[in-house]
Every structure is written in structure tokens, then in C-alpha cells.
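Quick question, first post here. What does this chain look like in 3D?
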Amino acid sequence: MRSELQTRHSARSEAESQNLPTLTSLTLALALAGISAAAGAQTLTLVSWGGSYGRSVERAWVEPFIEATGIEVQIEDYNGGLAQLRAQVETGNVFWDIVDMPTPDAVRGCDEGLLEFVAAGDLPVGADGAPAEKDYPPGTRSECAGGGIVSATIIAYNDELFPGEKPSTLEDYFDLERFPGRRGMRRVPVVNLEFALIADGVPLDAVYRTLDTDEGIARAFAKLDTIKDQIVFWEAGAQPPQMLADQEVVMTTAYNGRIFNAQILENQPFTIIWDGQVQETSGLVIALGTPRLDIAKRFIEFASSSESLAAISKYISYSPTRYSGNALVSTHLDTGIEMGPHMPAAERNMRRALNSDWFWWADNRDEMNERFSVWLSR
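> Answer (accepted):
Ran it through. C-alpha cells below.
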């Protein structure tokens, strides 16, 4: 199934990339035509994840874009998925312009025809002069996405609740005897199935091969069963740090950037367990049928530069997907701390890390969502 999806994407890339104007040439044409002022009267709607990450997007991308172009940008929050976007496109009532979307959803949305096509060759060259098609690591960008950051789902715990022995591995999250207490977990199968298999002894390079079998899926759910009666489920990224602070849970899955901000900006006694982290990429996509397509493309071009992507890391510990962007990561703007050690891709954090297989999730998300719902209801 994965190869079929890849084939469709490749065919679409070859067919469409020949017919689309580049973002760079489009920007130039708009400037020469004197359309910028008129475009400023319009307002783009950018849909992102809210919270500390949403504020980072606003400071790193939105505010500089408004200053540079005069085009207003309104930010809305969502919790992921394609349902809302699909409904807009199918009814022809598209009021979202740009969506900050995990790569598996971007792949699926691209395949369903919900998104505008964005070729890597249409994006700006890197800060070091590298063309975009050579500046993105393999497997980090959908054919309908620009921009892009790397985040990680990790395990975090409240240090005050472990005065003696501290948890340090992914296995400890599943060990209720040595480390009793409730666990926080996002109410979705993605990452949770990977965590379960890794903690059950499956090697990193065999996780998705294992999930390709009924026995492997059953094994993952069986591992989740071992802590099910101690799980408190969360849905929004702001919830895990709050659950830890309120001592509602002793450990939780979380986005690494959310825990970083709680540690650094709020002085919370939280510790990240990087062992077993699952890294995911995301990108900016354009809703098919937006009446503001030209200025949406302009925003994608702006946010896809090495400098814009690296600017995110001034506010939160998420990495740029582009090689040239990573070279620009420096310090946290508000505190001055070095951001390199807090990045998911830092060498010491990568000793046991899994890159999410977004083709697998694009092919299997619906089925896994159904199985996860059944598991929840039991």
C-alpha cells in the first residue's frame, strides 16, 4: 500500500510541477504589478496548534510577514485531522487558507485532492544557496507542503513526585510497580502504538514492519492494556504540562516543545525522557479552493526560508526541517539559553529515537483510529 501511495505522489509531482508557476516568480510578478497594497486589504487565515507553539508561529512567521507585506494574518487553533478541511473543500465553502499540518495528514490531504500542490523547486533556496529539493532531508516533506518543523513526542514527568529513583526509559512509563501513578496519554493511536512496541522490546527498525501485521497490532494494544486503568487521556497540547503541574498524573506523553516552555518559562520541575522519542515533521499547506491563493502562496514562500524556519527555535525547542535552517539555530530569545541541546535531533537525545513513518500512517490512520476507538470503549 505504501508503494502505491508513493507512486501516485510521484506521478502527480511530474504532471503538476510542469504547469505551476514558481512561488518566487509569483511574488516577483505581484510586486511588479503593484498588487501588494491591494493584497494587504485581504486577511489570510492561518490554522495552527495554539498555546506556546502558536505564539512561536505568530512571533517567528506571522508578525514578520505582516511587517514585510502589509497583508494581515488571522490565526485560528485546531487539534489536527482532516475532517474540518475536508468539509470546507467538499462544500466549496473554504475559509481556511493555510493549515499547519503534520506530514501524515498533509500526505493524505494531498492524495485526496484537498490541498494545493507545492513543489520543492518552487520554494526559496537555502541560506547556504542550496536548492530546496536538496535542503530537506528525505521523507520530511509532503508534495503539498512548505515550511516545516521537526518535533518529538516524548515522556515527561514531575520530578517532585519521584523523590527517590527517577524514571529514565520508555519502559519506565509502562512500569506501574516501580513507578506507580497515573499516566497521561493523547487520545489517538499515533505514537502510542509505537511507544507500546518499543517498550515491549521491538527494535526501532522493526516497529512499522511489526505494525504491518495483525499480531503486531494486537501486541501493541496488549502493551497499552497493562496501564489502561491508570491512563488520563488528553487531546490538546497544552494539557500535559498542566496535568503534571496539578499532579493529576506523574508521567505523560507530551510534545517536547510544550514541556520545554514549562521548564524554561514557568520554572516547572519537569524532566523529559528522550529515550524512545518519536520524531514527527509538519508543514504549511494551502486549502484547495481558497479565494486567497496568491497571497497564501506568498506566505508559504516567506515561512519556508531558512531564516524563518530557524526563527521558530528562538521561542520553542522545535527544529527546522531544512539543513540550512538547522545551521542557524542559536539561543532562546527571551532567556538567552543555547537551544541546541534542547532540540529533538541533538546527539545526546537521539540514542534511541524513531522517525515517524508518515507513509504508513497516511495509509493506515483510519483503520488505526477505528481500532483505537474500539480499544477505548472496552
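The chain has two domains: 2-150+281-345, 151-279+350-377.
The beta strands are 43-48, 72-77, 98-102, 145-158, 183-186, 231-234, 251-255, 270-286, 319-320, 353-355.
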